């Protein structure tokens, strides 16, 4: 299982990961355990600051230097439509909550020709 999420954010592709240390920091900032925090997010009971912190801490956990993560969120997350932030923040949370398969086969991506090729070579 892969616990990271890769996505375009601001100026390029970044890896996001809520490592144990980043979850501990998120819990401290929100004054809420990760289970309650996750439920608050999926039930759309979040604060705007929650979304920004998920993205910032996810960047740090994914290998971005803390200073750069703060710069990215200050530039590309603040004063941005919530509708743009929420899907990314939820994807970062979901990657840690349930993980993602390490590989995705062609049938899952909707690539019919590649899926047929995989079947033919099986």
Task: Please specify the SSE layout and strand pairing.
Blueprint: E1 4-9, E2 12-17, H1 20-30, H2 34-42, H3 48-61, H4 66-76, H5 82-98, H6 106-109, H7 112-120
Antiparallel strand pairs: 1-2
Order of helices and strands: EEHHHHHHH
Largest sheet: 2 strands, antiparallel
Average pLDDT confidence is: 87
Shape: globular
Could you tell me how far the N terminus lies from the C terminus, measured between alpha carbons in angstroms? 24 Å
- Continuous helix count: 7
Structural class: mainly alpha
Poorly predicted regions are: 111-117
Give the total of beta strands.
2
Measured on Cα atoms, how large is the radius of gyration? 16 Å
Offer a quick outline of the entry:
The chain has 122 residues and is mostly helical. It is built from seven helices and two strands; from the N terminus they run E-E-H-H-H-H-H-H-H.
Structure characterization notes:
The protein is mainly alpha-helical and 122 residues long. The chain has helices spanning 20-30, 34-42, 48-61, 66-76, 82-98, 106-109, 112-120; strands at 4-9, 12-17. A two-stranded antiparallel ribbon has the order 1-2. A hairpin with a 2-residue loop joins β1 and β2 (12-17). α1 runs antiparallel to α3, α3 runs antiparallel to α4 (66-76) and α3 (48-61) crosses α5 (82-98).
